[in-house]
Amino acid sequence: MTRIALAALIAFAAGAQAQAVAPQASAAMTAEQDHDLMMRALGIRKLRPGPSGNESAPNHANYDEATATPYPNLPDALTLRNGQRVTTAEQWWKERRPEIVEDFEREVYGRVPKTVPAVHWQVVVTDREMLGFTPVVAKQLVGHADNSADPAIAVDIKMTVVVPANARGPVPLLMMFGRAALPAPAQPPEEDLARINAVVKQILIEKDSSLRAVFDRYPAYEPVTRAAQNPFAFLQPQTPGGDPPTTAQLIADGWGYAYIDPASIQADNGAGLTRGIIGLTNLGHPRKPDDWGALRAWAWGAARGLDYLEADPAVDAKHVGIEGVSRYGKAALVTLAFEPRFAMGLIGSSGKGGATLHRRNFGEAVESLAGTGEYHWMAGNYLKYAADDATFGRKTAADLPVDSHELIALCAPRLTFISYGIPEKGDAKWLDHEGSFMATVAAQPVFRLLGAKGLGVSDDYHDAKMPPVNVGLLDGQLAWRQHDGGHTDAPNVKYFIKWADGFIGHSARR
Ligand code: GCU
């Protein structure tokens, strides 16, 4: 990029009049360049670096509980900015919740611009498949975002939707962030394959007549064969001694599921911010400090997926959940918080930027999320809280107007299941399980104010202690369970299904 182009970009990101610059080269920016641009727009000269995840590194993350809570007091979810206590549900919906939403949008996850283009869903394939013993209808869909304003940027959201074929009515459904592939594509029976092969041979011979001799020599040879497929592979546990895969459990319980592909909505890197749905909405320009990051973009994509499901008569759209693990656990929590049409969420190992407190200093830090590898998940403004030297001075996590307990509270009174595994099996300490539990505890009062049940433990988050591993707190709409597996939510899925079934009045009908 030329220096002039860079200067133009800086002027743009700084909020200069849009018409003054038309940064052509933006699509070619690296994450480092884009990050640098955002720092300048914010007046940040120096960021504190994030700690290392490697425990033997000299700058490793803090893993000492004694020093993990430098800012013990959280902003009160039920106190208005003017200091008044929130005592009624009406006050929450009309006054406090909008304040919290505004703070999260401006400072943490960014806003979805009003100009975000519409998405048009198209069913590409409808397939009748078998999942183990259960017949299902599997659909492959593409959600095309209108890119007439910038045809150079294409956004085609990939989603698969799978429902039991013989359900007696619309089914609850869990939408998961992940690769959208059909589970077990149906293949033609022998007689159709024979016809296909006859034509294929004919075409090959037309193309090269010497092939006739080859086919004559091997008269039983068929060029097109069935892909090896084991319909029961679908039921195989993913870990030795483990439960069947999440998808198999859902289908067996009479649920449907969907996979929505985050990468088809927004790339998982800073270089992609001028493309994907964020880039398309900005017509290829870099983000403004309060524009959305990838987490909010993925959440927006999930909401567009829900638009489609609302029009699908096979789906009980009032009972659609959102699920994700790790960075997609963060995305699932952001989705549930911002999109009230999602009825429930399974939030897997979400860590910083997800369920754990920004104010905690245990494992991953605000400074990690502000670095070039992860800042694209967040709004640009989030970088301020890792600034060591800036025109506004210095800020830390303690300066954030909100914290993650309030993100969880935005989900209330809907079904919110916070899930973790254990470090010994690979659900890294980096994720800060304890800090996530504290945040979940601190969200309880909002659930209760809205007539739902919390975890059933004391509201004092200051020294809240996680229940033992494999002991779920599953009596309320806000639930917690740390399983004894690794960086996955699979071992909690059977608990999730049973818990959700109880609240939505669903049961498996076979
Ligand atoms: C990194 C990152 C986490 C994230 C995780 C993942 O560890 O620091 O915030 O959750 O990757 O998504 O796998």
Q: How is the topology of this model organized?
A:
Layout: H1 3-13, H2 31-42, E1 44-47, H3 89-109, E2 119-131, E3 134-145, E4 156-164, E5 171-177, H4 190-207, H5 211-217, H6 246-252, E6 256-260, H7 276-281, H8 294-310, E7 315-325, H9 327-338, E8 344-348, H10 366-369, E9 387-390, H11 404-409, E10 415-420, H12 433-449, E11 478-482, H13 490-504
Parallel strand pairs: 5-6, 5-7, 7-8, 8-10, 10-11
Antiparallel strand pairs: 1-9, 2-3, 3-4, 4-6
Description:
This protein has one domain: Rossmann fold (3-Layer(aba) Sandwich). 30% of the residues lie in helices and 16% in strands. Helix 12 links the parallel strand 10 and strand 11. It starts with a helix and ends in a 6-residue tail after the last helix. It binds alpha-D-glucopyranuronic acid. Alpha-D-glucopyranuronic acid (GCU) binds next to loops.
